[in-house]
Design brief:
Layout: E1 2-11, E2 14-24, E3 29-33, H1 40-47, E4 55-59, E5 66-69, H2 81-86, H3 92-108, H4 114-131, H5 135-148, H6 165-179, E6 183-187, H7 195-206, E7 211-215, H8 219-225, E8 228-233, E9 236-240, H9 244-279, H10 286-298, E10 324-335, E11 338-349, E12 353-357, H11 364-372, E13 379-384, E14 390-393, H12 407-412, H13 423-429, H14 446-458, E15 464-468, H15 476-488, E16 492-496, H16 500-504, E17 509-514, E18 517-521, H17 525-535
Parallel strand pairs: 3-7, 3-8, 5-6, 6-7, 12-16, 12-17, 14-15, 15-16
Antiparallel strand pairs: 1-2, 1-4, 8-9, 10-11, 10-13, 17-18
Helix pairs in contact: 3-4, 5-6, 9-10
Length: about 525
Amino acid sequence: MIFIKDVHLAFGHKKLFSGIAETIGPKDRIALVGSNGSGKTTFLRMLMGEVVPDEGEVEKPDYATVGYLPQDGISVKGCTLREEVAKAFSGMTELQVKLDDAEKKLGEMDPEAEEFYDLIDLMGAWEEQLASFEPEKMNSRIEKVMTGMGFPLQDMNRRVDEFSGGWQMRIALGKLLLQGPSLLILDEPTNHLDVVSQNWLEHYLKKYQGSILIISHDRAFLESVTERTIELKMGSLNRYKGNYSFYLEESAARMERQRKAYVNQKKEIQKEKEFINRFRSNVKKAAMVQSRIKALEKMEIVKPEAEEKKIYFRFPPSPPASQKVVELEEMSKAYGENRVFEGLDLRIEKGDRIAVVGVNGAGKSTLARILAGVEPFQQGKRDVGVNTVIGYFAQHQAEELNPANEVLSEVEEVCENNPEANPRAALGALLFSGNEVFKKTSVLSGGERNRVALAKLLMTPCNFLVMDEPTNHLDIRSKEVLQEALNLFSGTALIVSHDRSFLDGVVTKVLEISTNTARMLTCNVTEYMERLEIETV
């Protein structure tokens, strides 16, 4: 359906792609992976025609449509939610024209060609879409998708202007799913979804009629939805016929094969050089020496794949803690008329590893701020254990860096009372080496800003970590390192996150937050989701 042919692309002196090639077929389920800065977003923009390669080409037939969900930045206004989402069906006439054109093309194509059957599959999907334009079907489809996205039915007549950024992204995703493009490109689609909506989206995408290309740092989501993996690494494109776990295994095996080939070739070259040096002056063996010299000159040297730099992260040793870490009694919190909590009781004890889950708007971030002592509340009591030392990572902390500061000075500001802190070493461990620590925070990428915020957290020892979406903008490998650091952390941790795979590797309890209530369950998030499905049957 889409063909990428020998594409080269550079930005200044940086080579992003060096002769990459790939084919995206109908009903492909592809994960696009690679570390931050490897070119994933540029690759997507190239597929959409927004970036033109320096060499090579991207071929896309006229009948194929591409739909794209960016990470953020979409906002709509001026109508109700139902009216906005109904715009997904505005292309009825265009759809009929595409079907008519496709019928003509079928008559000109070879019935034995793979493209012939690809086009038939697409026409079937378009005919299904066309049938859904009947008003009664359209409304039911809109409600099915938008309730799956987490919108209650009573929200359908609310003005879209009233919805926050995260909900705006859900509206955009819902519209894309209803449009049903030939290729659906999703860039971090789970960033703005709670675990319940993520679960719904996984099931929906498995039945999607078109192809799907996903960038996601949520490993559990990739494992569930994708069947093929494309890796961008050091300017090359590597393909794997399996999901993310398969990719990890095969990638490691491929690098080991390269390493062995490199070692064996090095031994062979050394052996040949020894022969040449030994018999260089021997007239009888002159022809043999010359032959081996020519063979060495023609030999294609095996180069082992360069290892990407890895993040290294460790929390400072925790001060001794008392059994009770933080306790809330009859706590009530409201924003104007919106009552978030009323009479909430909660006790966090030493050694707890808690994931906070709940639908968007349930108050997860509010609860994290209250527990951290940075958010006031109207009624009740917050009692902190006598030895509790709190470390707090806010959801938007990475966005609140001082743009006038350099990276190093931004971190140094938080370690005045900690003579043992080593900002330079912490930043080095988080991949800020050499002169990179003197870059202004205003020019950093999302992933870099998040690493600076984590470095700031490293500067002060604590025994109770409260972390609100700590994995935003971190790639999968960096998340795994953060997982390891949390598992080595000897204190108590409470984490608000939508990343099921990340949480499953860390937590032993789940705190479910809903309107005015909270319940603590002894399980990980996957076990919690299984329990939820049983409860809703």
